[in-house]
Amino acid sequence: MIKHLIFALLIGFVLFGGYVYWHLGAYKSPTLAEITGPEFRLLAKDHQGAYHKINTVITEVETWAKENGFKCQLSFGRYLDNPETQEEGRLRSEGGCVLEASEQFPEKMPEGFKALTLPAEQKYIQASWDGSPAIGPSKVYGPVQDLMYQKKLRPVDGVLEIYEILSKKEMVTTYFFPYSE
Known about the structure:
This protein is an alpha+beta fold and about 180 residues long. It contains three helices and nine strands, in the order H-E-E-H-E-E-E-E-H-E-E-E. Mean pLDDT is about 85; it is low at about 20-25.
């Protein structure tokens, strides 16, 4: 009897693990490309602290932008520090939404909001990931760092992650790792 119970529990754990593995997209690999970037026009607000807690800042900017007539179809997080070398409470980031080329920066914004332009012609390693954003960094950052090392590229601070929601269950994150040669 005990053997059957242990076997059933083991099978249950394996099935649950397989479901989580599949649901998060852990079996997927990112696509990488070297590109010369477009200009990015960002409506942003600063965030300090754990990167995984930036969502409230992004939501605040998106809500204000949509209430004031901006499309805000893509949101972003820009991560300025290396979490391996910087204390979690001191990590700096910016979050908000990407403005379309036809949209002008607002003349008046709430306190703490800012307009950022990342210039065209910056070179990036672009990575695209359509799995869960919760595991995206663990699937993307390593291969990008390996590629930069192989090609002897020098990373520049400020990894930009752009989030595109395709449906309630699907999202694509496009990462832009700036570099110099």
